[in-house]
Amino acid sequence: MTTKKATRKLTIARAMAEAIAQEMRIDPRVFVMGEDIGPLGGVFGTTRGLITEFGTERVRDTPISETAFIGAAVGAASDGMRPIVELMFVDFFGVCMDAIYNLMAKNTYFSGGKVRVPMVLMTSTGGGYSDAGQHSQCLYGTFAHLPGMKVVVPSNAYDAKGLMTAAIRDDNPVVYMYHKSLQGMGWLGTEKGATVAVPEESYTVEIGKAAVVRKGNDVSLVSLGAGVHHCLRAAEVLQKEGFSAEVLDLRSLVPLDREAVRASVGRTGRLIVVDEDYHSYGVSGEIIATVVEHNHTCLKAAPKRLAYPDIPIPFARPMEQWALPNADKIVDAFRQMMLNQ
Amino acid sequence: MKPTAEQRLWMYRNMVLSRYLETRIESIYMEGKTPVFNMANGPIPGEMHLSNGQEPCAVGVCAHLTAEDVVTATHRPHHIAVAKGVELDAMVAEIFGKATGLSGGHGGHMHLFDARVNFACSGIVGQGLGPAVGAALSRKLQGKSGVAVAFMGEGAANQGAFHESLNLAAVWKLPVVFVIEDNGWGISVAKEACTAVPNNHLRAAAYGMPGVHVPDNDVEGIFAAAGEAIANARKGLGPTLLEIETFRLAGHFMGDSEDYRPAGEKEGLQQRDPIPRYRRQLLDAGLLDENSDAALVNEAQARVETAIRFAQNSEFLSPEAALDVVFV
Asked: DSSP labels for B140-193?
């Protein structure tokens, strides 16, 4: 969809709220449920202003009962509504996963495609601000691993708005995972690169399409969410050293744009995956498999992954920051790759 | 609330049909599973949870529902599906896993979905409650008529989903009725060994909603209590918790040795089989005689046999159809 050139910059939080508001204006089936999404506007700003415009019937603060209200969203979606529910921190999935992966994700399949579950489960991910191991996880791989739900992860406000609009309009359940460090909440030390120009009118970003956010020839840096910004910083450093890095923003994990990954690595011959989720059995391994299962001869060097170590996330700043991916680690990984080649 | 003559015969007919369906499933299920019981063998593989004995819960509640009302049922769903009007041929074909089944064989006996009559079930204890609350919320938001009924076993009352869903339904005063089919056993664990209150309807007090206890698996007692609860939901008076004392005449699943039952329990329960009992009531009331009863039973059995033939004569989808309908 073409849009007028936008000059207005929005945070991801504002972009998400704007997308929801625009869909609520044109579609009475859309409503929002979650904890503190009413007058507070969402702990991470995702529903700010909605209650003023749409009232308490369509913007419903819930009890702290994720099993009930996510289960309720499944029931409402199956009955013709288009609910958006917020799981405040993805880490809280442990108290409500049945509603997510056994109901939301499977009812369409179990019904032979006759029951649609058009709902959006939006949830915050990521850390870096010493919130420790029950409020800092990404769990991208956990959700992407389980069939029956689409999974999107925006890295900037433009994609955030377009992916939210697409998610609401999708006839399938979509898990919308937004990284706290990109939200634009003053108290969370926001990544500046996430706040970008966003058109005022409604538009969609297609679910399942990755984006080359920086072109390059020497290495493909593949990432998602906050990791995209680490990659962009690393690419700047590498450019000064005479190397051009391509940065691929996955944007969607389900469906995964495997063609875009293969095309990028096919051009550059080198692959570094950057993922703030746990190292093993996760997104980073999947991306590498996507390339080597298809064509291992395109690689000039063994692929690398920078992911979170297989440890619970520690509280203390030195330990926490040491474990997180960052631009320096990406640059080092590339240098190692070139040395070992 | 008293059932009309028509409603009484409807309830009896559906109990008879449901029981005969279970009887036929039971015998077909065992094909290929003797002398060695292997759950994967035979024309109906997998777990099988029969509803024998619990039919009064289904008919007493569903007598008050129409196709537009929403029901979420349990891993033991057949009697409820029959009473809710799920299309029988397609339901039986789904139990056989056939292409003509409700879901082309993607779901099976624990995952029956018939959107035409707003019926769904789930194999996870207590997890149908949230969706029922959501369906009720949907009706409220859309200004559409219809109520939601969530069936569960007594074991589900000890699930977190029970507490969360009842609280949410009461906070939002939604048109939903929670029905506990208390058959006394959570697989092999007796209710009194795992439940802190003697009766689960008492728990309704914690959610500020009426809690109603129906003893003795009594068809018309259930009809009366469910009628009031559903009427209140339709009037916008909010949810009710209904606890029905019932029993299962079969094991938790087929293959269950039922060694956990006290000696003589099962024989005692057979004496209290609700179907002959209700038949007696209707004969005494003059609504049935031996001839009309025989005709009713024959008709129900013929209907079941038609559905079974339909299922047996249907093909499977191709194996690769497993890849379909993950997304729509």
From this structure: HHHT----EEEEEEGGGGGSHHHHHHHHHHHHTT-SEEEEEEE-SEETTEEHHH
Smallest CA-to-CA distance from A173 within A155, A146, A154 is with A146
Q: Looking at the predicted complex, does its ipTM rise above 0.95?
A: yes
Alpha helices in chain A (DSSP H): 12-26, 50-58, 66-78, 97, 107-110, 140-145, 157-169, 226-240, 258-268, 283-294, 317-323, 327-340
Q: What angle do CA B22, B23, B26 make, to 5 degrees?
A: 80
Using DSSP, state whether B98 is helix, strand or coil.
coil
pLDDT in tens, B287-308: 999 999 999 999 999 999 999 9
CA distance A230 to A334: 13
Contact criterion met (CB < 8 Å) for A65 and B164: yes
Domains belonging to chain B, first-starting first, are: 5-310 (3.40.50.970)
CA atoms within 13 A on the CB side of A72: 34
CA dihedral in degrees (A160, A166, A168, A173; nearest 10)?
-100
Tokens of A273: 């995956």
Q: Band of the pLDDT at A282, cuts 50, 70, 90?
A: very high
Residue of A nearest to B108 (CA): A110
Please identify which of the residues A135, A179, A229, A230 carries the catalytic annotation: A135
Q: Which of A33, A58, A98, A110 to mutate to test the interface with B (most CBs of B within 10 A)?
A: A110
Rounded Cα–Cα distance for residues A51 and A32 (Å): 10
* Closest among A226, A124, A116 to A175, alpha carbons compared: A124
**Residue A3 confidence (pLDDT):** 54
Chain A within 8 Å of B143 (Cβ-Cβ)? no
Nearest to A102 among B124, B135, B148 (CB): B124
A9-197: CATH, from 3.40.50.970, 3.30.70.360, 3.30.200.20, 3.40.50.1820: 3.40.50.970
* CB contact set of A102 (below 8 Å; sequence gap of 6+): B122, B124, B127
Chain A 274-303, residues with CB within 8 Å of chain B CB atoms: none
Helix (H) or strand (E) holding A33: strand A30-34
Out of 2.20.28.10, 3.40.50.920, 3.10.620.30, 3.90.76.10, select the CATH number for domain A211-340. 3.40.50.920
Token pair listed for A301? 């060097």
Per the CB < 8 Å rule, is A72 touching B326?
Answer: no
Of A103, A168, A126, A204, nearest in space to B121 by CA: A103
Instruction: For residue B5, give the amino acid letter.
Output: A
